[in-house]
Amino acid sequence: MDNKILGLHHITAIAGDAQRNFDFYTKVLGQRLVKKTVNFDDPGTYHFYFGNEQGTPGTILTFFPWEGIGKGRTGTGMATEITYTVPAGSLGFWKERFKQFNVPFEETIERLGEKYLRFTDPDGLQLSFVETVTDTRRPWITADIAENAATKGFHSTTLTLKDIEPTAKILTDIFGYTLQSQEDNRYRFITNTVDNANIIDLLATPNGTPGYNAGGTNHHIAFRVADDKVQMEFREKILSAGHQITPKIDRDYFFSLYFREPGGVLFEIATDNPGFTVDEPLQQLGTGLRLPKQYEPARADIEKVLPVLK
How far are the Cα atoms of 16, 58, 101, 109 from residue 98, in angstroms, in the given order? Predict the structure, then answer.
């Protein structure tokens, strides 16, 4: 299985206010801030990584909180919903918690035989929880969110597309996913290489309006591979299929390749190595500002620009 796509590695989205984003994901959803660093291309902007204790691939939602950015628009050509698994019977807990914190949410729905609770974060990013009894991943727990309610990690993400066929071909022919089921215009693709974070839903919306990337939208989704040797094998497959793809990029905690799939969604292939403990111990993850080495000489200036988190 090591030379395969291992489901989702992380998903990256865009936020506005950094403090508001930090508060929602750590204090309302109860996730761990695994890494506090900066955008490689814009060091005056944070890059937050939220996940479980270790920042296990398949649990990591990351954000670029650009202060003052306008609101984006979800639509075709982007990932439009992120779904986490939560323990069976916990949706009632989350509804009460969302009421307590004034989080907008919808009535529970059933989709492809599963119960979903859809809600939005403060920037309008579309999220959902799905109940499961099969997810054995250990969650990060807090004083007021116990293990019987805490988020486990990703279940799936939904891509909204005018035409799903070219994207489906990437998933099946290159990434090794198979079509598992269909409900109306939703097509579920799954990989059996891992037990969790292994689902991509394609939503066929031929008359949809294209999305616009800004606050409250997803920037890209990253697929997981074991290491950069496997990653480069996938690079050759993607090039051979006629798609453009970046060279390997060192993101400090993983290596990355990026390409825009035919439906317009920015895909990344990210490695497990070297992981988030490469520059701080497990017990201290997310407690200090970590900078890419090229920005370390400018630390004092960068710290003056970044918002102070309380």
Answer: 20, 24, 5, 16
- How is residue 210 written in tokens? 């294209």
Does the predicted model carry a pTM greater than 0.70? yes
What 3-state DSSP class applies to 119? Answer: strand
* Residues forming beta bridges with residue 266, ordered by sequence position: 260
Tell me the C-alpha distance between 26 and 161, whole Å.
Answer: 31
Cβ distance 67 to 309 under 8 Å? no
Q: Could you give all domains of the chain from N- to C-terminal order, each with its CATH number? A: 8-305 (3.10.180.10)
Closest CA to 280 of 304, 253, 299, 251: 253
β-partners of residue 238 are none
Residue 79 phi/psi, 5-degree rounding, is -75, 130
Number of helices (H) and strands (E) in the chain: give both, helices first.
Answer: 5, 16
Q: In which order are the strands placed within the sheet that holds 114-120?
A: 109-111, 114-120, 126-132, 78-87, 153-161, 199-204, 186-190, 178-183
Q: How far apart are CA 65 and CA 17, in angstroms?
A: 6
Nearest CA among 158, 171, 160 for reference residue 206 = 160
Write the Ramachandran bin of 251: left for phi over 0, alpha for psi from -120 to 50, otherwise beta: alpha
Dihedrals phi, psi of 119, to nearest 5 degrees = -155, 175
Q: Could you list the pLDDT tens digit for every one of the 310 residues in the chain?
A: 578 999 999 999 999 999 999 999 999 999 999 999 999 999 999 999 999 999 999 999 999 999 999 999 999 999 999 999 999 999 999 999 999 999 999 999 999 999 999 999 999 999 999 999 899 999 999 999 999 999 999 999 999 999 999 999 999 999 999 999 999 999 999 999 999 999 999 999 999 999 999 999 999 999 999 999 999 999 999 999 999 999 999 999 999 999 999 999 999 999 999 999 999 999 999 999 999 999 999 999 999 999 999 8
Q: Which H helix or E strand runs over 228? A: helix 228-240
Q: Which amino acid is at 46?
A: Y
